[in-house]
From TrEMBL:
One Pfam family here: HupE_UreJ
Keyword Oxidoreductase: no
Annotated TM spans: 39-58, 65-88, 100-127, 139-162, 174-192
Protein name: HupE/UreJ protein
Source organism superkingdom: Bacteria
Signal peptide: 1-23
Keyword Iron: no
Keyword terms of this UniProt record: Membrane, Signal, Transmembrane, Transmembrane helix
């Protein structure tokens, strides 16, 4: 195992141990900081957002940028729906399904056309944004939303960077596919829990 691969594994393990403690109200004043912490503290949000970056990294052309950008914009729209008092059905199931489906896309090295992948990613993002808004507490919508949008963009960038850290070789592609399988496995557990 190379040192870089061990570092990636160690960072992934530490990230997965963060748990959901910070993803729920009462842990910090509702503000930009708590908005920023929300996607980082819940394993469901963290894995889905990393997966968007991992998936986007292996897509052709403009999809590499459009998928993460579309996710962030749709996530903000989902928070806006929540702010308007419009409910989405089965938000937690939608979030869990996003972890499962995005993991499967990575595991199977899928290359959907942008006309299919962008609406799929955006639909999942609506659920994430709606959930973020539900956890907002008494924070201002602008500060809190800016926090979770920037954290999400950072997680997408981490996924893109992580995917690029693996060589474009049989072994590197296999490692990414196995990682996608692991993400999908967590999605199955979340849906069953």
């Amino acid at each position: 195992m190379t040192i870089r691969f061990r570092s990636v594994l160690a960072a992934s393990a530490l990230a997965s141990l963060s748990g959901a403690a910070l993803a729920h109200p009462g842990h910090a004043p509702a503000s930009f900081a708590s908005g920023f912490a929300h996607p980082l503290g819940g394993l469901d949000h963290l894995l889905a957002m990393l997966a968007v970056g991992l998936y986007a990294a292996r897509q052709p052309g403009a999809a590499r940028l459009l998928l993460p950008t579309g996710f962030v914009l749709a996530m903000l729209a989902g928070a806006g729906l929540g702010a308007l008092g419009l409910a989405l059905p089965a938000v937690e199931a939608g979030i869990s399904a996003s972890v499962l489906v995005l993991g499967l896309l990575i595991a199977f090295a899928a290359r959907l056309p942008l006309a299919a992948s962008l609406p799929l990613v955006a639909a999942f993002a609506l659920f994430h944004g709606h959930a973020h808004h539900a956890e907002m507490g008494d924070a201002t919508l602008l500060g809190y939303s800016l926090g979770f949008a920037l954290a999400t963009a950072a997680l997408h960038a981490a996924g893109l960077t992580l995917a690029r850290a693996f060589p474009d070789s049989r072994g590197g592609r296999l490692a990414l596919r196995l990682g996608g399988g692991g993400i999908a496995g967590v999605g199955v557990a979340l849906l069953g829990g």
